[in-house]
Amino acid sequence: MKSTLLVLGALLLSQPSPSPPSPYCPATVLTDYTVGIVYYAVVQRAATCTLGQVARVRKASTLNKGASYRPIFPLKGAWAITWDTNNIPDRAHWTLFSWQWEYWDGKVWQVAAAR
């Protein structure tokens, strides 16, 4: 009996522990207004985000994608969207159609889904 419990305990301890959830979550972009070649983007966290996750977002040019230099905004870091706040300046919501919104998934920048 004792040896069975020891074996069971060893098996339970040898199981990999579940990895903690990512602190980052996806973002979605809603087009609110369109004026000529720009649109007003409403950037939100995806519905799948949990309370403690944050969506880190930026704008990136699509004209020279894959080139050695690709314009992004903001130049350093990214804007953060939490469940109750975001720090995207109002003027940055206006987006040229040649730019796209991207979110950080913890490893690489992904294109934000448009709705």
What would a concise description of this structure say?
11% of the residues lie in helices and 37% in strands. It has 115 residues and is mainly beta.
Indicate the radius of gyration in whole angstroms. 21 Å
How many angstroms does the end-to-end distance come to? 60 Å
Main beta-sheet annotation: 5 strands, antiparallel
Whole-number count of domains: 1
What's the helix count? Answer: 1
Instruction: Please provide the ordered H/E string of secondary-structure elements.
Output: HEEEEEEEEE
Give an overview in words.
It is a single chain. With 115 residues, this protein is mainly beta. It has one domain (21-114). The chain is built from one helix and nine strands; from the N terminus they run H-E-E-E-E-E-E-E-E-E. The protein has one helix spanning 2-14; strands spanning 27-35, 38-45, 55-61, 72-73, 79-81, 94-96, 99-104, 109-111, 113-114. The strands form two sheets. Strands 3, 4, 5, 7 and 8 form a five-stranded antiparallel β-sheet that branches. A hairpin with a 2-residue loop joins strand 1 and strand 2 (38-45). It starts with a helix and ends with a strand. The model has no long low-confidence stretch (mean pLDDT 86).
